[in-house]
Amino acid sequence: MSTGQGRTRARTFGIMPGALSPGAWNSITDVPGVQVGQLTRIEGEAIRTGITAILPHEGNLLSDRVPAGLSVANGHGKLAGATQIEELGEIETPIVLTNTLAVPRAADAILDWTLAQRGNESAISINPIVGETNDGWLNAIEARPLSVEDATTAIQSATTGPIDEGCVGAGTGTSAMGWKAGIGTSSRLLPRELEGCTLGVLVQSNFPGSLLVLGEPIGTILGVDSLATSRKDAEPPGSIMVVLATDAPLSDRNLKRLATRAFAGLARTGASFSNGSGDYAIAFSTAETVRRTAARRKGIAGVDQISNEASSILFQAAIEATEEAIYNSLFMAETMSGRSGRTVEAIPLDGIARLLAPGAADA
Predict the structure, then answer these.
(1) Is 207 within a domain?
(2) What is the CATH number of the domain that holds 150?
(3) Three-class SS state of 197
(4) Catalytic, out of 225, 252, 279, 304
(5) How many structural domains compose the chain?
(6) What is residue 301's predicted lDDT score, i.e. its pLDDT?
(7) Are 227 and 208 spatial neighbours (Cβ–Cβ below 8 Å)?
(8) Among the options 187, 210, 239, 285, which is catalytic?
(9) Is 109 exposed, middle or buried (0-12, 13-18, 19+ CB in 10 A)?
(10) Which of 84, 87, 229 has its CA nearest to residue 95?
(11) Residue 226 belongs to what domain range?
C-alpha cells in the first residue's frame, strides 16, 4: 500500500526550472485537445501497477494522424510501435504507458478501441503505441494482473484538465534514483514567434541515478543513490518514458529533434542512463496544419510552419518541462510497500525544503 500525506508539487518549494512560464495546469493537458486517462491497480500485498493513456486529440486518430518523432537515449526497452514512428513520422492511436509485461494487453486494448470508432471498422493496419517501464521491484509483474479491459478503461477515461501524479497509473509501482516515483507532468508557454503555443510533458519515472534538484546534489547529501548501493536485494536499474506534446506546427523531423532535447532535462535531474535503463522520448504536434489526414496523405504531408531557428525556444521548453515533470513525479509520490515486504520511501519534502533554503549551502 502507499502511505503519506501532504505531498505537493515542486513549485511549492520554489523549484521552477528555467525561464519560461507554465500553463494553467502545468500539465501536458495544457496543450489544447490533449487528454490523459489513468487506471491504478493496488491489490493485496504485491500488486502495484497501472496504466496511463495519452490521447493527442479528441478526434479519430487513425484517420486524423499527428506527426511525431521518437528519440532513444538507451534502447533497453519494449516500446511497441517504435519502428513505424521512426519510419513514417506519425502516430495513429493513443499512447499507452504501462509495465513491461502488460504491453501486449495494452496493445490489444488500443486495437479494440480504434476498431470500435466510426469509420475504422474495416481497418486492416493499426500501429498501437505502448511504452513501458519495469515495476517488478514493488509489483508482482509476472502475475500480469492488468487486463485488456483495464487498458480500455484508461483510454476511455481520458480527459483534459489537471491530472493525478505520483503513485498512479503507469507510475504506481515505479521508483527513481532510490526514491518512490511515478507519473509527473509539466508545461511551458512559448513566447515570440510561437506566441499562443504550448509544450507539455508527461513522464513515467523509473530510472537510476543520484538526484539533483536545480543542480544541488540532493541524493548525495541525503545518502540515497540507486547505483552506489552494495545490497544484494538492491532495486535494479529501471527506465523512463517521456511524452512531449505541442500545438506548435512541427513536422516529424523537428519533432524528433524536440524529443531528443528531453534527455537534457533528464540529465539535469541526475539520471545515470545506465545499461539497464530504457530511456525513450516521443514528441507529437496537435496543430491541424501538420496533421496527416486522409486527403493530405495522398499528397504532401504537412510541413513545419516555423523556421529551424524558431524551434530553439521549443527545445528550451522541452528541457525545462521534462526536468520539472520528473521532480513532480518524485515529489507527488508516496512511500509504498509491495512484493516481498519491500518498501520504497518517498523523498522527504521537508528535507528538500531545508536543503534548498537560501544560505543552506553555506550553513
Answers:
(1) yes
(2) 3.60.70.12
(3) coil
(4) 279
(5) 1
(6) 60
(7) yes
(8) 239
(9) buried
(10) 84
(11) 26-356
**Rounded distance between C-alpha atoms, residue 251 and residue 322, angstroms:** 21
Say if CB 24 and CB 133 are below 8 A apart: no
Active-site residue, selected from the candidate residues 205, 226, 277, 285: 277
Rounded CA-CA distance 268/165 in Å is 20
Is position 4 within any domain? no
Residues of 79-101 as b/e, b for ≥16 C-beta within 10 angstroms? bbbbebbeebbbbbbbbbbbbbb
Whether 277 is catalytic: yes
Q: Is 21 part of any domain?
A: no
| pTM attached to this predicted model | 0.94
Whether residue 172 contacts residue 50, with contact meaning beta carbons closer than 8 Å, is answered with: yes
CB 344 within 8 A of CB 167: no
Show the CA angle centred on residue 258, arms to residues 177 and 73, nearest 5°. 40
For the chain, count helices (H), then strands (E): 8, 16
Length of the chain, in residues: 363
- Alpha helices, DSSP H only, in the chain? 82-88, 103-115, 148-156, 218-222, 252-268, 294-297, 311-331, 349-356
Only one residue has cell 524536440, namely 258
- Ramachandran region, residue 318 (left: φ > 0; alpha: ψ -120 to 50; beta: rest): alpha
CA–CA separation, 182 and 250 (whole Å): 29
Examine the residue annotation and report whether 157 is marked as an active-site residue of this protein. no
* Among the listed residues 194, 167, 165, 192, the one whose alpha carbon sits nearest the alpha carbon of residue 179: 167
Cα–Cα distance measured from residue 43 to residue 229, given in angstroms and rounded to the nearest whole number:
29
Query: What pLDDT, on a 0 to 100 scale, did the predictor assign at position 195?
Result: 78
pLDDT at 228: 54
230 is catalytic: no
Query: Which residues in the chain land under pLDDT 50?
Result: 3-4, 229-232, 363
> Does residue 137 lie within any of the structural domains?
yes
